[in-house]
């Protein structure tokens, strides 16, 4: 079983993850640019896009979180001021949003997207490293190998139909046993480093500026020795 997929390394190093070039539905704004690393239950995908040019999208066909890792991307929703995203900055584009997308030079961004039907609040929601953090639930005590961490989160976006939530999270250091991951989760690390353990004893290390995706049910452990902060997307898939 796949444990964690590295979507991008901050230092530009190649990743071992396999990508396939494919559109996400017939109305995908990036049909020639999208590279999918993971696609699974719940109509969720994750991967990367390399893009230059501009698109006028009258109604964004799905909900998508993007984080720029190289270059600059400008998103302008109808009736709103432009949102300019540089390296390490991200946003969520909600289903149904009328948006103009511009990259004046080659821009690389990682993404996590989910499709759904039904009503949704349109618009573009920025992700903030300086989030309005609130205390959040730490990992269960029975899974911890050491003291309980202090965790905080700022959940800034929800798509109820897609069971898609996004925001910013941070935590003091902790060590957790290998266990099935409870959610589909996209992570872009802002600060700190994490060592993800697999059942075979191998370890995947990631740090600030790296992006990973962990599928729901993947057996994975966590170990961090300093404060970790990340942008996240999570989705719960019914068994």
Task: Please outline what is shown here.
By secondary structure, this protein is mainly beta. The protein has strands at 5-8, 20-21, 34-40, 44-57, 63-70, 73-77, 83-85, 90-93, 99-114, 124-127, 134-136, 151-159, 164-171, 175-180, 184-191, 193-197, 203-207, 211-214, 219-223, 228-235. The chain has no helices and 20 strands.
Explained architecture:
With 239 residues, this protein is an all-beta fold. The chain folds into 2 domains: 123 residues, Sandwich (Jelly Rolls); 102 residues, Jelly Rolls, CATH 2.60.120.10. The chain contains no helices and 20 strands. A hairpin with a 5-residue loop joins strand 6 and strand 7. The protein is globular. The two termini are 16 Å apart.
What is the CATH architecture descriptor of the largest domain? Sandwich
CATH superfamily caption of the largest domain = Jelly Rolls
Indicate the structural class.
mainly beta
Please indicate the count of domains: 2
What share of the residues lie within helices? under 10%
Mean pLDDT: 96
What spatial form do the alpha-carbon principal axes imply?
globular
Task: Please state the CA-atom Rg, rounded to the nearest Å.
Answer: 17 Å
Main sheet?
9 strands, antiparallel
């Amino acid at each position: 079983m796949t444990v964690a997929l590295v979507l991008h390394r901050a230092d530009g190093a190649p990743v071992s993850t396999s990508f396939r070039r494919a559109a996400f539905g017939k109305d995908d704004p990036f049909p020639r640019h999208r590279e999918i690393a993971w696609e699974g239950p719940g109509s969720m995908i994750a991967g990367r896009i390399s893009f230059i040019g501009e698109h006028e999208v009258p109604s964004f066909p799905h909900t998508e979180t993007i984080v720029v890792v190289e270059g600059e991307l400008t998103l302008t929703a109808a009736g709103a001021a432009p949102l300019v995203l540089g390296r390490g900055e991200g946003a969520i584009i909600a289903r149904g949003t009328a948006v103009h997308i511009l990259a004046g030079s080659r821009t690389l961004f990682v993404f996590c997207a989910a499709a759904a039907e039904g009503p949704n609040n349109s618009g573009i929601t920025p992700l903030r490293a300086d989030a309005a953090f609130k205390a959040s639930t730490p990992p269960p005590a029975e899974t911890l190998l050491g003291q309980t961490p202090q965790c905080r989160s700022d959940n800034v976006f929800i798509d109820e139909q897609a069971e898609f939530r996004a925001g910013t999270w941070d935590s003091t250091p902790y060590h957790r046993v290998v266990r099935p991951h409870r959610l589909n989760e996209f992570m872009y690390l802002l600060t700190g480093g994490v060592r993800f353990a697999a059942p075979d004893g191998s370890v995947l290390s990631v740090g600030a500026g790296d992006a990973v995706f962990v599928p729901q049910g993947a057996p994975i452990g966590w170990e961090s020795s300093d404060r970790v902060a990340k942008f996240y997307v999570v989705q719960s898939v019914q068994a």
